[in-house]
Amino acid sequence: MLPAFVDAHVHLDKAYLLEPIANELAAEGAKLTADLGDAIATVARLRPRLGPEVVAAGAQRAVDTLVRNGTVAARAMVEIDPAVGLGLMDLHADLAARNAGRIGLQLVAFPQRGLELDGMRELMKGAMAAGADVVGGCPYVDDDPGAHLDFVFDLAEAYGAPVDLHLDFSDDPEASLIDLVAERTRAAGMQGRVAIGHVTTLAAMAPDRADRAFAAMAEAGIALAVMPATDVYLTGHPREASGWHATRPVAPLLRAARAGVTVAITNNNLCNPFAPYGNGSQLQAAWLAGLLFRAVAAADRATLIDAITVNPAQILGLPEHGPTPGARADLVVLEAANQDEALLQCSKVAAVVRAGVRIE
Fold this sequence. Notes:
Blueprint: E1 2-3, E2 5-10, H1 18-27, H2 36-50, H3 52-68, E3 71-79, H4 87-98, E4 104-110, H5 120-129, E5 134-137, H6 145-159, E6 163-167, H7 178-187, E7 194-198, H8 201-204, H9 207-220, E8 222-226, H10 228-234, H11 253-258, E9 263-265, H12 282-292, H13 298-306, H14 310-315, E10 331-334, H15 339-345, E11 349-354, E12 357-358
Helix pairs in contact: 6-7, 7-9, 12-13, 12-15
Protein name: N-acyl-D-amino-acid deacylase
Domain Amidohydrolase: 44-356
GO molecular function, one term: hydrolase activity, acting on carbon-nitrogen (but not peptide) bonds, in cyclic amidines
């Protein structure tokens, strides 16, 4: 028995869109590619053609999958975009209400295509006014990432909300924005209320530079969300001009944890152009991270378990939960003798309990 899983970063409004998007592309004589820019552009272009019922069905299926795999709370990235306005905020509000007894959803106003599109800043303000819990950001897609960050932190301050950023999704250390985020976090007095996701540049940095980045994050109280399935799938494309073939970077979460950074392992995407193989199991995501980072020490495997239980709960600001006297009874029961065996074998979920009530 473990504390139930908490997912600090998941995209419900993109879940299970792989087949409908592939069908739309096939009709155009095109096909999917494992490229971040193409995935963003393809989903943005085709989303209006999919219909709200398709997106809603995928989001509900994702919730069912998460709960079945032991997740009882999640931070959901709600895409805010001129193509759909605030329609996906309404979808998530309905989703959260219908599933309130099974999973707690914390909603992030997320500008997937940046803030430089016409009307985006007003839409972001509208999303927060409509009840979004967290201000999201994606500064690497804008020409002026600093201005993007300034707006996000100002909006968060106006609403007293946390910040959650997609950051540094590349293998170029020179593109890193970690220092800018740390500066703004300290200036705004938001230590402990900022999370950054992906951050694959950390895997490409020289060790001393990565150590400085970890120290800056720890000092500013910036949490790190790592998405093994998505990041392995989308990163590491060859640079044709130079002939240099990149590695497959995933942010080194064990090193980050040892440096004092709060780390979480997340699903991010489920069965879509960003991660065709996503299946909603945070335990399997932790298992994959264990392989990637050679987690042979018991302490390292304990870190992986913390990264899908207590750490993401802390990032979401949730009360203590788990099989501890006085804690909230959010629990997952696994077919294993102990947590080490559960992780090593990616054991089957036998039962899920939320607030003392068995829900699976």
